[in-house]
Design a protein that fits this description.
This protein has 29 helices and 15 strands. The chain is of the alpha/beta class. It has a six-stranded mixed β-sheet, sandwiched between helices. Strands 5-4-7-8 form a four-stranded antiparallel β-sheet, with helices on one face. The chain has a three-stranded antiparallel β-sheet with strand order 1-3-2. About 60% of the residues lie in helices and about 10% in strands. It folds into three domains: about 290 residues, ABC transporter transmembrane region fold (Up-down Bundle), CATH 1.20.1560; about 170 residues, no CATH class; about 70 residues, P-loop containing nucleotide triphosphate hydrolases (Rossmann fold), CATH 3.40.50.
């Protein structure tokens, strides 16, 4: 993967923006359980009361609370409240908020400083709990015993006793002892539980003040719910935006990869094509690139989001209730064990899958391209079995991987549900012991689910990552392949006017990886205005020799000179720009006949196209086509005959009007009459060009000014036809095997 990391650099800004949006989304998603806990704890259980510090309290009630405060605590609390009565300047405003003000004075909270409120919060919470408990005890004898302790027993007081008036008359030492007992009683409860319990007393006080507590509760639940809705909508907007950005980055990277792979393959020499099969190159530039595109898209959306959610979820869960951290630890350990086990089984299969895809593409390509041969030999059943075997191998491997991966989802759901049950069981006990609030337990469970889902998202990444990693390596192998034929750093230029003279000086060639040379010490010169022909038995090296001139291969020893310049010292573009090449197998491209001819020169005139088709003897069959040059050509030119394909390939080379023509057995599909007419027209049309012709038929080269005879990679004869008939035994044997002495002499 790291070998292709540079392809992500152009999309760094998109990825950074995606990460920022994912971070914002994670913050919002992690906030939702907190708001859910607030709705349960504050909205439902506490009636919409958010703080144990009342915004207003009756003077009589404040007096009761002060009984359970030290002198310092009493001073601290009263300093934060303002006494409001009928003589106060804001009486008219306050009485609307607190109707009880008409009958008695009240204290109104005058500070909003967080630090100050945090200071008086535990004082007010404990005092309100004690007062509330005493008030309930005086109406319920069973609770009176629970509230009693030390020298003070509420259960022994007669009904109707004003407990608070009596408590006010107690000595300071006795009251100090009572406060100590109160603090001891509340020590087992956490501060949050004390605050939550005190809010019930605050709600009761608000009702005594004449406030609408039902409306307060509904308003709190609705407002908190709206906040959750807004957060969810904004989180969804972030998700959609990240999906768009990730898709754009992934598609752009895939586009650049396909472009560079295509350009790289275009610059391959035949030596590199022997290392990568055509079917493999197709798979690498399509299927493998698609695997990387999918990885990048999901990686941006998940691999950044999942860790943020996992880490944030752990922090939030521990802040919610640190004592239950071990439940999350169990879930994480179980998930990691599952992921490790699954991928230790599946990972070795991913590279095999890509190799099997290559194999399937190879079989399919061979069947489609060789369909006529398959039908001619009635081997359809054999080819069907061969395809079925490749298909079954790929299917079996894919099924094995998919079966292993499918096990992950139910296993993770089992872990998720098991953790939920564990949290509920442990949390229920803590709620029963007043050590945890119900809303906090629900929030903790939500955080645990978010953590598990984060690992689930990471597991999806682990499913795609191994296969994509294999694909990345396969693509990188192509991009990093060092081409054996390269341009010099400072290429030379051909002189003007250009002289199309070609010289082979002691040229030897060996295929990459071969142990022996296939061409040995070749020396000859091809002059402009002449036809230089090459003939020899099959495997003698004719096509290999021809392929050295456009530098499809580079010579192993010696040198080839064009216009007196070593072809390795000029750029490949400059060299091939002066060559019109017609291969053994005429290859046409999908489009029209005209588009194929203009492949040599896009700006060629109609007159040049007509002239080239006339010389190539293609005009006769073009006139029979309804659309002429506008006739459609199927892929590979399969809708025209072999002879027509060769003539159109020759016409395409003529459109280029190069000073050098190379015909690699390009007349083999032509009948003798067309062959003779084409060579005669070609000779007239290319009088100043250098013609190099590889042929199997003596009749094709009999008029050539220079014939080179090859045998086992060596030149065994050079000269004209008549000279070789007298001096070269190999040439004479080839000639007599095709024509009679009378035909050769005529």
């Amino acid at each position: 993967m790291l070998r292709l990391a540079r392809y992500l650099k152009p999309f760094t800004a998109l990825m950074l923006l995606s990460v920022v949006l994912l971070f914002i989304q994670a913050i919002m998603d992690l906030s939702l359980p907190d708001y859910m806990a607030k709705i349960i704890n504050n909205g439902i259980q506490q009636g919409g009361i958010e703080s144990p510090i009342p915004q207003a309290i009756r003077q009589s009630q404040m007096g009761k609370l002060n009984l359970f405060m030290t002198d310092d605590e009493k001073t601290t609390v009263l300093d934060q409240y303002t006494l409001v009565d009928s003589t106060s300047p804001d009486y008219s405003q306050q009485v609307k908020l607190y109707p009880v003000l008409e009958t008695e004075p009240i204290y109104v909270l005058k500070t909003s400083d967080t630090v100050t409120l945090d200071t008086i919060k535990p004082i007010m919470s404990k005092s309100q709990l004690v007062v509330s408990g005493i008030e309930q005890a005086m109406t319920d004898p069973t609770k009176a015993a629970a509230m009693s302790g030390g020298s003070f027993d509420l259960s022994k007081l007669p009904a109707g006793t004003n407990v608070f008036a009596m408590l006010a008359l107690l000595p300071a030492a006795t009251r100090a002892q009572m406060l100590e007992q109160v603090n001891t009683r509340f020590a087992a409860m956490g501060e949050s539980m004390i605050s939550q319990a005190a809010m019930g007393a605050v709600k009761t006080e608000y009702a005594a003040l004449g406030m609408d507590t039902v409306s307060m509760q509904n308003q709190y639940i609705i407002s908190t719910g709206l906040v959750m809705l807004i957060l969810s909508l904004f989180s969804g907007a972030c998700t959609i935006t990240v999906a768009f950005l990730s898709a754009r980055a992934a598609a752009g990277m895939a586009r650049n990869l396909r472009r560079d792979v295509f350009i790289k393959v275009e610059n391959f020499s035949n030596a590199e094509f022997e290392k990568f099969s055509v079917s493999s190159l197709i798979t690498r530039s399509t299927n493998d690139v698609t695997q990387l595109q999918m990885l990048v898209m999901i990686m941006i959306r998940m691999i950044f989001y999942a860790p943020i959610m996992a880490i944030g979820g752990v922090i939030k869960a521990i802040n919610t209730d640190a004592s239950m951290w071990w439940t999350i630890a169990i879930a994480v350990i179980a998930l990691l064990s599952l992921i490790f086990g699954v991928f230790s089984l599946a990972l070795p299969k991913f590279r095999i899958i890509q190799q099997l895809v290559d194999r399937l593409n190879l079989v399919t390509r061979e069947n489609l391209s060789g369909m006529m041969v398959i039908r001619a030999f009635n081997t359809q059943a054999f080819e069907e079995n061969r395809f079925d075997q490749a298909n079954q191998d790929l299917t079996r491997t894919n099924l094995f991987v998919n079966r292993v991966m499918v096990f992950m989802m139910p296993a993770m759901m089992l872990i998720m549900n098991g953790v939920s049950l564990l949290i509920i069981w442990v949390g229920a006990h803590q709620v029963a012991e007043s050590q945890m609030q119900v809303g906090n337990m629900m929030a903790f469970m939500q955080y645990a689910m978010q953590i598990v889902m984060s690992f689930l998202m990471l597991s999806f990444m682990f499913i795609i990552l191994p296969r994509a990693s294999v694909s990345a390596d396969r693509i990188a192998d192509v991009l990093e392949m060092e081409t054996s034929i390269i341009d010099p750093k400072q290429p030379k230029k051909f002189a003007l006017p250009f002289n199309a003279k070609i010289e082979f000086k002691n040229v030897s060639f060996r295929y990459p990886g071969a142990e022996e040379d296939v061409l040995h010490g070749l020396n000859f010169t091809a002059m402009p205005g002449q036809t230089t022909a090459f003939i020899g038995s099959t495997g003698s090296g004719k096509s290999t020799l021809i392929n050295l001139i456009p530098r499809f291969f580079d010579v192993t020893d010696g040198a080839i000179f064009v216009d007196g310049v070593d072809i390795r010292d000029v750029s490949q573009h400059d060299l091939r720009d002066r060559i019109g090449y017609v291969p053994q197998k005429g290859n046409l491209f999908s489009g029209t006949i005209e588009s194929n001819l203009r492949y040599a020169d896009d700006e060629a005139s109609a007159e040049l196209l007509q002239e080239s088709t006339d010389v190539a003897q293609a005009s006769s069959f073009l006139q029979e086509m309804p659309d002429g040059l506008a006739s459609e050509v199927s892929q590979g030119g399969t809708n025209v005959s072999g002879g027509q394909r060769q003539r159109l390939s020759i016409a395409r080379a003529l459109v280029k009007k190069p000073p050098i023509f190379i015909f690699d057995d390009s007349f083999s599909a032509l009948d003798f009459k067309t062959d003779v007419a084409l060579r005669r027209a070609l000779k007239e049309h290319t009088q100043n060009s250098t013609l190099l012709i590889v042929a199997q038929r003596i009749s094709t080269i009999i008029t050539a000014e220079h014939i080179v005879v090859l045998d086992e990679g060596k030149i065994v004869g050079q000269g004209t036809h008549s000279e070789l008939m007298n001096t070269c035994e190999t040439y004479r044997e080839i000639a007599l095997s095709q024509l009679s002495m009378e035909e050769l002499a005529s």
